[in-house]
TrEMBL record:
Similarity annotation: Belongs to the short-chain dehydrogenases/reductases (SDR) family.
Superkingdom classification of source: Bacteria
Ketoreductase domain residues: 3-181
Descriptive protein name: Short-chain reductase protein NovJ
Taxonomic lineage of the native organism: Bacteria, Bacillati, Actinomycetota, Actinomycetes, Pseudonocardiales
Length: 249
């Protein structure tokens, strides 16, 4: 039976690349995002390539929407046994300028969103006695100026990952986190724009400080997700892998 995977924040960037990769690995994929047109386009492209996919609009920080969407995926595609918690936003500011809304929205999407999605999906994984959850952390979890909200959320996701790994292991469910460094997406393009530099210059500058001398691409992260959700990765759980083109400490 075709296994079903859910990828959040799949309209573009890392999530879109992960959805394409999991489809080519043979999963039926539910692409979730606030951007409905984006996920429907992504799902149509996967279907045109011979894969199986649906695109659904959801705010991952909204309990009712999450519950309804995961149930709909189970109805339409089958029990979801892979979940990639990738949806994310940044609202960068130095602490003294950071608003309540900057804090709440970032914690809401990354932490509450991953919690709600995982709680809804674990039901199917534990019933199937097989599952894979992959959470998107970040090198910012180690601390990054102007990102108190984001780094707290990304560090929080690492504790969340380890705890779920402990709770769900006996059901055949592994839970791991990927902490990317600089990946070329709209998110990093927006940071370049905020800093007033061209994205090309921003990427070139970042690459100088990365041992492999290039920034990451969404496919670099999709490759690691593909590994974590594979059958053979069943003895690897509760891990955080930094994918940053070099060591991070
Ligand atoms: P991106 O291009 O900004 O894509 C993020 C996607 O998440 C967008 O399509 C966005 O939709 C969606 N999203 C935001 N809030 C949502 C919500 N409440 N419910 C559902 N979907 C929502 O970002 P990316 O660079 O691919 O990043 C993907 C993940 O990797 C994030 O968790 C990010 O923190 C993490 N990460 C990225 C980097 C990097 O360098 N790019 C590094 C480390 C970690 P809308 O456009 O409609 O808002």
């Amino acid at each position: 039976m075709t296994k079903v995977a859910i990828v959040t924040g799949a309209a573009r960037g890392i999530g879109a690349a992960v959805a394409r990769r999991l489809a080519s690995d043979g999963f039926a994929v539910a692409l979730l995002d606030l951007d409905e047109a984006g996920v429907q386009e992504g799902a149509a492209a996967i279907t045109a390539d011979g894969g199986k996919a649906i695109g659904l609009s959801v705010d991952v920080s909204d309990t009712e929407q999450v519950e309804a969407t995961v149930a709909k995926i189970a109805d339409e595609l089958g029990p979801p046994v892979v979940l990639v918690n990738n949806a994310g936003i940044t609202r960068d500011n130095l602490l003294f300028k950071m608003t309540d809304a900057d804090w709440d929205s970032v914690i809401g999407v990354h932490l509450r969103g991953s919690f709600l999605m995982s709680r809804a999906a674990q039901k199917y994984m534990t019933e199937q006695k097989w599952g894979r959850i992959v959470n998107l952390s970040s090198t910012s979890a180690l601390g990054n100026r102007g990102q108190a909200n984001y780094s707290a959320a990304k560090a929080g996701l690492q504790g969340f990952t380890k705890t779920l790994a402990i709770e769900l292991g006996k059901f055949g469910v592994t839970v791991n986190a990927i902490a990317p460094g600089f990946i070329a997406t709209d998110m990093t393009a927006a940071t370049a724009e905020r800093l007033g530099v061209s994205f090309e210059d921003f990427k070139a500058g970042a690459a100088q400080a990365i041992p492999v001398r290039r920034v990451g691409e969404p496919e670099d992260i999709a490759h690691l997700v593909s590994f974590f959700v594979s059958e053979g990765a069943g003895f690897i759980s509760g891990q955080v892998v930094y994918a940053a083109g070099g060591p991070t400490d």
